[in-house]
Amino acid sequence: MLNLASLALRAGDPILPLSRHLPFALQRLVIEKTMARIFAEPVADGDFDCLRGRWLRLEVTDLGLAWNVTRTDKGLRLDRTAPSDLCIRGNWREFLLLASRQEDPDTLFFRRRLIIEGDTELGLEIKNLMDSLDPDRLPPRLWQLIQWLGAGATGIDPHQGVQQPSA
């Protein structure tokens, strides 16, 4: 029996790719506002300063989406075509596993489920940044949702903590 999170993820498979058709200006507006809210403290604390003057490209290959992110005086900013110093590429479920901490970054990178290319020094700084971000700084309901969906992606019932048989 599949748990509800697994069903929600399966429902996302045909729907999420449609997001590539949203105009980049709308994507940028939503993502920049979301990052400003979620990462306000870490940005203010200088945690993202490794991106000042450098660009990180995030590519969600199975959705056909990509964004370049940098740190400016106004916070984290997105651009579609900026030349990237570092690229992290993978499918959306791998990014979900990373965000939910169901898998650690090293496992995802070493197993080539997430691909990292470019400036290796910046790559190490970004990996350390991901490890250091405290999920308790996120709005509690958002963190619960991310964990719930991440557990669903692993087949673990987030309420029971046990492996669910696949259908």
Features:
disordered C terminus; alpha+beta; 5-stranded mixed sheet; 5 strands; 167 residues; Nonspecific Lipid-transfer Protein, Chain A
CATH superfamily: SCP2 sterol-binding domain
Structural class: alpha+beta
Supply the CATH architecture. 2-Layer Sandwich
Shape: globular
Instruction: Tell me roughly what share of residues is in helical segments.
Output: 40-55%
Q: Determine the number of helices (DSSP H or I, runs of at least 4 residues).
A: 7
How much beta, percentage-wise?
Answer: 15-25%
Instruction: Write down the domain tally.
Output: 1
Q: State the end-to-end CA separation.
A: 6 Å
Strand line-up across the major sheet = 3-2-1-4-5
CATH class: Alpha Beta
Please tell me how large the radius of gyration is. 16 Å
- The averaged pLDDT comes out at 87
Element order, helices and strands? HHHEEEEHHEHH
What is the CATH topology descriptor? Nonspecific Lipid-transfer Protein, Chain A
Low-pLDDT stretches are 160-167
Summary of the model, kept short:
With 167 residues, the protein is α+β, with helices and mostly antiparallel strands.
Explain the layout of strands and helices.
Elements: H1 4-15, H2 24-38, H3 40-44, E1 56-60, E2 65-72, E3 75-79, E4 86-90, H4 92-100, H5 105-110, E5 114-118, H6 120-132, H7 140-154
Parallel strand pairs: 1-4
Antiparallel strand pairs: 1-2, 2-3, 4-5
Helix pairs in contact: 1-7, 4-7
